[in-house]
Each structure stands twice: as structure tokens, then as C-alpha cells.
């Protein structure tokens, strides 16, 4: 079992016998969601942290399953109450990881998977130095643009925000423990599994 550090209201707490924390980051449209679902279906020991967001639900998204869809007022109150392990603004919306469930799972020796953007991943790395951080890259930028546009679930303004942010995120991929190119889904999942196996006795 490994040890991780977590900071709570500025104070540093050592969690003994903690589960493994894994952060998956990558630009919008890179296929993180699909990779996540495949990983979770193959590894029932992994727990997915459901984020809160001020973004409106897309067609088919379910509150409490895909995200907790909340108002900006509520999100800001939760920030003030220190209820987020990390949070960030992305393409004009706020996203955050609820603190309590993640800490409880880690403390009880369970593993947690976070699928979050760059700023949040940086906050997590600062609080949990032993996190396994994985960055998912597209085969090339044209392919990514095609995927973001092909999704047809976002407005043109949201699409251009996401494309600009995607470039910034890709430039920071080197900060992560591992970079994986999502060209072929099976290969990418296999590479993530190899990284998990090599870093922890839990998998
Ligand atoms: P989407 O709106 O496409 O669902 O997500 C936009 C971005 O927000 C994605 O890069 C996703 O990984 C990220 N995201 C989702 N939940 C969180 C979270 O709790 N915290 C942070 N920092 N980013 C998140």
C-alpha cells in the first residue's frame, strides 16, 4: 500500500495505507471519456470520482452519474466551504472534484480515477505527490479538431474555446508521468494498464 499526502484547509495530512490515485488528463475530444469507461469496466476496483460542474448537461447526460450539474452560486459556495479537492474554470464553466468521497475512498485503501483538465491536475499533483498522472494525446491536431467538431454537441464559441485550450494543454503534456497517444483505443487502454501495473501492487 502506498502513502499519499493530502492538504485540507492548508494543513497537510498524511493518509496511511492509502489507495492509488490516478489522474487522466488530455485535451477535449481526445477520447478520455471512452478510455475511462473501458478502464472502469475492466477494473471494478477503480472508483470514478463524479465531478461537479456549472456546464449545462449535454443530451443524454445524467445528473449524479456523468456530473453533478449545479449553479455557479452553489459552486462558489462549495469553493468557500473548501468542499473541492481541486477546481478550475474551463471554456467558461467551472469544474471541481468533491473532496470528501475521494479522501474517504483513499483512506479506506480504495483506488480513485480522476478525469480532469490541466489546472486541476496540477493542483492534485501538488497535494498528492504520489499520484499517477497520465496525459492522453491525439494522433495529431487535425484529428482532434475533427473529433471536437464531429461531436456536434457544443456551440461554435465553445468549440473555439476548446480548440485554443487543447493547444495549451498539449504543450504541458511533458509535466505528466506518462504520455499516451490515443490512436488505437485498445493500444491506449493497454498502455494505461501497463502504467498502473508497474506503479502499484493494487492492480
Ligand atoms: P466536458 O465539458 O467536455 O465534460 O469537460 C471539459 C473538461 O473538464 C475536460 O477536460 C474534463 O476532463 C474536465 N473536467 C471534468 N471534471 C473536472 C473536474 O472535476 N475538475 C477539473 N479541473 N476538470 C474537470
From TrEMBL:
Residues 19-197 form the Guanylate kinase-like domain. It is found in: Cytoplasm. Keywords: ATP-binding, Cytoplasm, Kinase, Nucleotide-binding, Transferase. Its EC number is 2.7.4.8. It is an enzyme of class 2 (transferase). SUPFAM superfamilies: P-loop containing nucleoside triphosphate hydrolases. One of its GO terms (molecular function) is ATP binding. Its main location: cytoplasm. GO terms for cellular component: cytosol. It catalyses: GMP + ATP = GDP + ADP. ATP binds at residues 26-33. Belongs to the guanylate kinase family. HAMAP family: Guanylate_kinase (MF_00328). Essential for recycling GMP and indirectly, cGMP. This is Guanylate kinase. It comes from Plectonema cf. radiosum LEGE 06105.
Amino acid at each position: 500500500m502506498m502513502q499519499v499526502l493530502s492538504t485540507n484547509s492548508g494543513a497537510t495530512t498524511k493518509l496511511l495505507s492509502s489507495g492509488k490515485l490516478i489522474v487522466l488528463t488530455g485535451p477535449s475530444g481526445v477520447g478520455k471519456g471512452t478510455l475511462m469507461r473501458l478502464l472502469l469496466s475492466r477494473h471494478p476496483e477503480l472508483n470514478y470520482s463524479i465531478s461537479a460542474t456549472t456546464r449545462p448537461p449535454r443530451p443524454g447526460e445524467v445528473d449524479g452519474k456523468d456530473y453533478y450539474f449545479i449553479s455557479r452560486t452553489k459552486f462558489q459556495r462549495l469553493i468557500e466551504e473548501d468542499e473541492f479537492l481541486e477546481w478550475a474554470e474551463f471554456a467558461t464553466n467551472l469544474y471541481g472534484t468533491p473532496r470528501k468521497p475521494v479522501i474517504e475512498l483513499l483512506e479506506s485503501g480504495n483506488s480513485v480515477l480522476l478525469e480532469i483538465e490541466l489546472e486541476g491536475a496540477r493542483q492534485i499533483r501538488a497535494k498528492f505527490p504520489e499520484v499517477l498522472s497520465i496525459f492522453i494525446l491525439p494522433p495529431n491536431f487535425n484529428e482532434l479538431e475533427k473529433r471536437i467538431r464531429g461531436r456536434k454537441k457544443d456551440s461554435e464559441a465553445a468549440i473555439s474555446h476548446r480548440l485554443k485550450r487543447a493547444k495549451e494543454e498539449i504543450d504541458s503534456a511533458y509535466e505528466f508521468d506518462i504520455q499516451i497517444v490515443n490512436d488505437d483505443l485498445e493500444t491506449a487502454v493497454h498502455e494505461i494498464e501497463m502504467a498502473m501495473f508497474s506503479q502499484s501492487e493494487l492492480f
